[in-house]
Design a protein that fits this description.
Layout: H1 3-18, E1 43-44, E2 50-53, E3 61-63, E4 96-98, E5 104-106, E6 116-120, E7 127-131, E8 136-138, E9 145-153, E10 160-164, E11 173-175, E12 184-189, E13 195-203, E14 213-227, E15 236-241, E16 264-271, E17 285-287, H2 292-302, E18 310-317, E19 326-330, E20 341-348
Length: 349
């Protein structure tokens, strides 16, 4: 990427981290995005803080004194990232749940996890479970079937990434594996006045019939930093690609534009619906508003979807021409279980 673009992201944030102990904004400790920020022998860990060699630690690394109090001086530990349960090693945001209406689902299961189907017998009300399918449940009247499609996770490296266009003689960028380092990307606005898109492609494990009622649709993305982001006013906008089976992005020719090969639906959703977006930078999940209307619009336009089709979402800044504002997110290059996920709830008459 151009040197100017690298400085654009790393300059002010890196400097703020260096002088955190003297008081720089609200940042109480030094944060990193790449190994070079940690100095000689330093490494930027998944937590966003620096570690250094220490043979007395199991993994041979120890956090530096400028890490947060919970990490400062501690050995880098094997196992789950911050946010997981210290006893079970499980991420509490990824748990099996059963809804009050009898619809069972497994939230947050990584790619390859076997989901379960739960069906209600209309005459007895008894439930039966069979492995290997997305969760589904018929209502007590037998008039419709509720199906949870997902959660779907990014399956291949080219299924998520980001890009900004070629403008003003500058070379655009296609970033299928992260910008600052593999797995760490940005989206929003760049250059000034142009959409810096992040894209997310999901494989449908279930068909979605043309007459299906879309009850809800939610995308979740792990965040890790922001650049020039105004929490009080800045927002993102979400589109669905206008395709019955969205192909993988293959290069800058796929940038959504009049001369590009990707066409987006006219319907879109602001994230959030009102006000500014509070982007969680702790590598926790940032959930979109309900995208049911967007999915229903695409299903109607395309006459439904077959099993194994793909849907692709595109996200960029809501308003352009404000000097470039971005949010950082984790793509699947950082780990299949850390990539974005999409869950669609449908009712089939």
């Amino acid at each position: 990427m151009p040197v100017s673009a690298l400085r654009r992201h790393r300059g002010p944030w890196f400097f703020c981290g260096l002088v955190a102990s003297l008081g720089c904004g609200d940042r109480p400790s030094f944060a990193c995005t790449e190994d070079t920020a940690c100095g000689a022998d330093g490494r930027c860990e998944i937590t966003g803080h620096c570690s250094f060699p220490d043979a007395s630690c199991e993994l041979g690394r120890r956090y530096g004194e400028h890490a947060p109090p919970s990490l400062s001086g501690a050995c880098v530990a094997p196992g789950p990232i911050a946010g997981t349960d210290a006893t079970t090693g499980e991420d509490p945001t990824r748990a099996s749940t059963t809804e009050g209406d009898g619809t069972a689902s497994i939230t947050g299961a990584p790619t390859g996890t076997t989901l379960a189907t739960t069906t209600d017998d209309a005459s007895t009300g008894d439930a039966s479970t069979e492995p290997g399918e997305s969760s589904a449940a018929g209502d007590s009247s037998g008039s419709s079937t509720k199906v949870t499609v997902g959660p779907m996770f990014i399956e291949e490296d080219l299924d998520d990434g980001a890009m900004w266009p070629s403008v003003g003689g500058d070379v655009g960028m296609w970033l299928p594996s992260g910008e600052s380092r593999p797995g760490f990307g940005f989206l929003g606005e760049y250059p000034d006045g142009h959409a810096y898109y992040g894209y997310f492609r999901f494989h449908l494990p279930e068909a979605i019939p043309a007459d299906a009622i879309i009850s809800s649709a939610n995308l979740e993305i792990r965040g890790w930093t922001v650049y020039q982001w105004n929490y009080d006013a800045d927002a993102l906008r979400i589109w669905l690609q206008d395709s019955a089976d969205a192909p993988q992005v293959a290069g800058l020719d796929d940038y959504p534009a009049a001369n590009g090969s990707v066409e987006l639906r006219g319907e879109s959703a602001r994230w959030p619906a009102q006000g500014g977006l509070e982007w969680d930078t702790s590598m926790a999940l940032n959930a979109t508003p309900d995208l049911a209307t967007l999915v229903a619009d695409l299903v109607a336009a395309r006459g439904g979807f077959e099993m194994d089709d793909h849907v692709q979402l595109w996200i960029a800044a809501d308003d352009l021409g404000l000097g470039g504002r971005e949010v950082g997110w984790l793509d699947a290059g950082e780990g299949a279980d850390l990539g974005a996920s999409l869950t669609i709830e449908i009712e089939i008459p």
